User: Fold this.
Amino acid sequence: MITDMTQGNPLKHILLFSVPLLIGNIFQQLYNIADLVIVGRTLGVEPFAAVGAASPLFFLIVFVLVGLTNGFAVITGQRYGAKDFQGVKNSVVVSTILSIFITLIYTVICSVFMHPILHWMNVPDNIYQNAYWYVEIIVLGLLSTTIYNMLASIIRALGDSKTPLYFLIAASIANIILALIFIQIFHWGVPGSAVAVILSQVIAIILCLIFIKYKFPILHLKKSDWRIKFDKDFYDSAYEHLRVGIPMALQFSIIGIGIIIIQSVCNTFGSNVIAAVTAALRIEQIATMPMMSFGVALAAYVAQNFGARKFKRIRLGIIKTSTINIVLSIVMAFIMRFWGTNIISAFIGTATKDIIDIAHQYLLISTIFYFFLGQIFIYRNALQGMGETLFPLLACVAELVVRSFAAVYLAVKFGYIGMFYSGPIAWVSASTILFLGYFGSIKHIVFKVKEKLHT
Assistant:
């Protein structure tokens, strides 16, 4: 159901929006987690490590498209908040054209450079082929990834977080079933899990289109809406979308590059460390999902209220969600420190005590810094909801530089334990930039709006 977030209780809107997002994000993680569990428990540690070694590249490739489509949806949400319903339709058309065009070019580039990147990542020879085919199959199915994320982002931009949840649940269940079929019955091994991911996203696209047809009349596009005139209005609209979409794609790519650098360092320590870090990161991603969900909900809330020029509501929403994330960061850190490794042991049926101990050491370090990670989710999404991309981009660059330097330097000095500190140090740097950037940006925006009203 479409929700107007420019009216009513801000916290109620954000809470109601974030709960389906939280459940949906958990199911989203099941795409990759299901692969890891099935591969780890049926094929063993080395295939599990292959998927783990390839996962950062997988996330980098997909994150770029997620950032792009989320950026386009910011414009959709702002136009909906301004009650420009024809503008909403125009945004959907422009987003679709740009997304497909960019994805096709991106697919070719990723496929061509796949081998050099994997070699640069120091993927061990014994798991190289499985890692390569896992990512290559994902790349060949990128168009389905883009279309699904675009449709889900547009629906969320209109204030509906429940419907994408239903799609994710269906797609995640399909992914698990297909992965089991392809791995255990067809004996396709690691590549079978990647095929399952792509086919499950195709199912999600079909469900999105069916629901839009029957439940979202505002998104019903006529033939006339698709008759594009490549005139000034089209180029202006395309520029408006790219102005937000490209920086957000860059932000996500920078995050992904940082993860790849960490993985390339991690890969030098062998299959056991790769398996341990892979399992720990997946568990950590689930633990931080509540904080991330509030951030995504805040982005939709801010975008609509920014379009309606309701800046007091924006400030109030940010204060409340920031407070909630502080509490969540403490609770999740406590849970992960005491029960994280119990969950990790379920990931890899053949896990040794050494693998479990390494994963536990990672969690003991990272959980101390969850406060900073929670605030990154809040202020990055708030700025993006306002269409401000400079400070999120600067924060991502700082995170990349700090994470990379710390990973390489500390790994040389202290081994893989030193590498575990690189992420937390990067979180502190990025959260500081975003916090300062938000207060500077909101004052500047309000001043500009007031100046326009007086002239």
User: Anything to note?
Assistant: The mean pLDDT is 84. Residues 60 and 257 are 6 Å apart (CA to CA). The chain is about 85% helix and 0% strand. Residues 10-454 form one domain.
